[in-house]
C-alpha cells in the first residue's frame, strides 16, 4: 500500500484547482488533485506542503483534512490522504503536469478524474453540502450565551464555506459568539485558532465595523504568533481595515511587523502579500515609508511567486503615484 497525499486547493472564488497528468504517467491525460508520496520521517501535512511547492510553486494553507481513500488499481494499491487547502496564488507554475484549471465545486463531477480522485471529489462534495446538526448555533438570539464546547465542536467539524457562513452570521448578531471567536483565535490549539480566525475573517467581510475594538489586541500578538495560518488571516483582516481608525501608537508596531514579514525568506506568500497592502496603506498616512516599501518590494521580484510579484508590481505603481503627489 502506497501512502500519498493530495490537496483540494481553493481560491478566493471557492473554485478548486485540478491538474492534468501527461501521456507517460500511470493515468495518461487524467485529471487529479495535486500531491504525492510521503517521504520517510515526513508527516502528511509536511508532505502536501512540500509537494504543492515542488509541483506548482504556490503556497497553501491547510484548512482541514478528509478521510483517507484506499483504492486498488490492480498494479498498485494507494491510500490517499486529502487536505482541503486555501491559496492566494491563481497561476501555478507546472513542473509535472501538462495543464491546470479552476473548477467550481458543482462542476467537479464533470471532471475526468483518476478513480481514487473521483472518490475524493465525492467526499469533498458531501462535506461541503452536509447540514451540520449543530447549525442551531447560528440561530441563537442576539444576546444569548454560547457554550464553549458546543462552539468548539462545531468549529472542529467545519469544512464548508456554508458552515462558516452560519457561524459568521451568528457572530454578527451575537457579541458572545464574536468574542469567543476572537478568544479562540489566540488559542495555543492551532487547529481551533486557525478555524476561528478563518470564520472571524468572514465576519469582517460582511460587517467590517465589528473588528475595530479587537484590532489593537491582534496587533499586539502578531510578533508572538507561531501559527502562520492565523497570522495570515489577521493580516488579511487588517489589510481590509481603515488604518486611520486605529490608534497611531499601533501603526509603528504594525509597520515593523509587516516589513519583517516582507523581508523574511520564511514568510508565506499570502503573508507577504497582505503585508505589502498594509504597508501601502500606512504609506498613505506616512509618505516617508514609501521609499522603504518600494525597496523591499523590489527585493522580492526574483522570488518566483507569481502572486507576490503581481501584487508587488501593483503596489509599486501606487507608490509611484504617491511620490508624484509629494
Give the termini distance in whole angstroms: 65 Å
Q: From N to C, what is the helix and strand string? A: EEEEHEEEEHHHHHHHHHHH
How many separate helices?
12
**How much beta, percentage-wise?**
5-15%
Rough shape? globular
Task: Kindly state the number of beta strands.
Answer: 8
Secondary-structure content class? alpha+beta
- Low-pLDDT residue spans: 131-143
Find the CATH topology of the largest domain.
Nucleoside Triphosphate Pyrophosphohydrolase
Number of domains: 2
Give the second-level CATH assignment, the architecture of the largest domain.
Answer: Alpha-Beta Complex
Mind explaining what this structure looks like?
- With 326 residues, the chain is an alpha+beta fold.
- The protein folds into 2 domains: 2-129, Alpha-Beta Complex (Nucleoside Triphosphate Pyrophosphohydrolase); 207-325.
- Helix content is 49%, strand content 13%.
- It is built from 12 helices and 8 strands.
- The protein has helices at 44-56, 115-129, 148-157, 161-173, 175-185, 190-206, 215-221, 228-239, 249-263, 269-285, 289-298, 306-325; strands at residues 2-10, 16-20, 31-32, 35-37, 61-65, 69-72, 77-86, 99-103.
- The strands form 2 sheets. Strands 1, 4, 5, 6 and 7 form a 5-stranded mixed sheet that branches. A 3-stranded antiparallel sheet has the order 3-2-8, with no helix packed on it.
- Helix 4 crosses helix 5 (175-185) and helix 5 crosses helix 6.
- The longest helix has 20 residues, at 306-325.
- The protein is globular, with a radius of gyration of 21 Å.
- The chain starts with a strand and ends with a helix.
- Mean pLDDT is 85; it is low at 131-143.
